[in-house]
Fold this protein.
Amino acid sequence: MNTTNSLRSLVFATALLLIWSGSRLDTIAAENTKVNSLTGETSAQRDARMKWWREARLGMFVHWGLYSAAAGSWDGTNYSFINGTTNIAEWIQNTAGVPADEYAARLCPLLKPKPGFAKAWARLAKDMGAKYVVFTSKHHEGFALWDSKVTDFDAMDVTGRDLFKEIVTALHEEGLRVGIYFSVLDWHSPDFPTDTKKSGYPHPLGKRMSEQELAALDAGRDLNRYVDFMHKQAREVVSNYGPIDVLWWDWSSKEIQGDSWRAAELMAMVRKYQPQIIMNNRLYYAPNVSGDNLDIFDVTKGDFTTPEQHLPATGLPGVDWESCMTLNDTWGFSSHDFNWKSTETLVHNTVDAASKGGNYLINAGPMADGTIPEAIQVRFRELGAWMKKYGESIYATTANPLTEVSWGKITAKPGKLYLHVFDWPIENRLVLPIKHAGEVKAWMLADEEHEPLAVQKTADGLTITLKPGFQNPYDSVVVLETDATSAKQ
Ligand code: FHN
């Protein structure tokens, strides 16, 4: 090669190296950008900490406490769900207006968890394909499932067992990530506010007292003393039971949020014991508790936001989010609510969340003895059977890079799209509005032979001929190997 060509090659190679090193320096700079002004965490550190959670995509929520023994009824009255949080079973103390002492006296004797209840929860979570379980360590009633040293309104004093430890141990033994739901409301505490106008929270005594009487009662209460107590309880659950992966705070009103809880101090304390823990943002107020409000999503206030009882219409781009839902109408066990979601709905919701880059947390409400109702078990195991066959199209996927399609949803991995076909196409021909460049290959995910499907490139994008033999009643999944990620305009 003569000198001129060698020189040209050297200049070209140098230019490439400069371009590569420039982009690499940009990447390093981006990864080292501090994204949390409170913790100093960088983008790369946050991504590493969130990785398992973002890949998990599916979790099991469990609401279990003294309210489970009430089962949505009080003094012979069945309180049936109306809407929102009206008459949901774990709110029975508030719904029936029961004073704390009477509530404790009536229900504590009824909490009789059967041996092995926690192991059964963990096995069901595994069977459903969940990667993590979030369980109520303390709900608004204030009853602590763990052995608390700052109150005797706890499982050890009432049942002689550390139920929290039994649950965490069972989850760890099944290789599940452990999430703790922790209510910042506490209707048992003598210091939790009763003045509903001031607090923004309904209080059980509100069913028996006027607003003036509630305000007068509140005068003798001390929110800061309650917050001290609440911090001590939070410290107990994150320091005494080994690795905790998620802390699910619940919930803040406009009037009592953030600094009222001394939230920054509380989260810093939690991270001291559990440096890798992931926390939601409900120590801060989000209108209608849905968490959809991007204007409040700020990683210094929590790691993910929590749309409740719905899936965000278009996802929450660039935000970590988890949609939590009841299986019937209520989080806690109800003896008379049989409005169960179908297994098809569970599969479709799981897929929908993943297709928008979010997680799905579906709830179970066990009975007082810890038994999860059969109707829940059946649905969770049917969801799990689908996840066992098609989980590759959910776990560790990212949001649909194309536009929404009429026949189902799309999830993605590098170089692959997973086409979730809810509505089987006429003549087995599936049209995907995608601009395509290079070679594409498609097969039915249920086809272990990966037999290629016929793919035609047409003006509408791609037309893929599906194999009816691999149709699934809930969601048939097609794998499309392509590097194209732009929708056909
Ligand atoms: O009041 C609670 C309710 O009981 C339940 O725990 C839900 C679960 O997200 N959170 C609150 C309502 O948003």
Q: What stands out?
A: The mean pLDDT is 93. The CA atoms of residues 30 and 166 lie 42 Å apart. Residues 85, 88, 90-91, 250-251, 289, 308, 324, 331 surround FHN (CB under 6 Å). DSSP finds 14 helices and 16 strands in the chain.
